[in-house]
Amino acid sequence: MTHYALTQTVALATEFEARGFLGTVGKIAAATIVFFIAIGLIVGLVLGYFIGRSVGRNQAGRR
Question: At the top level of its lineage, which domain of life is listed (predicted)?
Fold first, then answer.
């Protein structure tokens, strides 16, 4: 009976360790995705600003 309890305790500890590792990997993956989305938004805003200014100048000159 003691061997069975010890085996179950080790299995439970291993499961918690695996969950913690997978949780950490998931957090890192989510942070990476958020980072790339933020970079994409910033680059998009900068490109949109400059493209908008260049198009605006051309249209304003024609009037």
Answer: Bacteria
How many Å apart are CA 27 and CA 2, to the nearest integer?
A: 37
CA-to-CA dists, residue 13 to 8, 17, 20, 35, angstroms:
9, 6, 11, 33
| pTM of the predicted protein model | 0.57
Which residue has tokens 């949780």? 23
Cα dihedral: 16, 20, 25, 28 (round 10): 160
CB contact set of 56 (below 8 Å; sequence gap of 6+) = none
Q: What tokens appear for 56 in the block?
A: 């605006």
- For residues 60 and 41, what is the distance between their CA atoms, to the nearest angstrom? 28
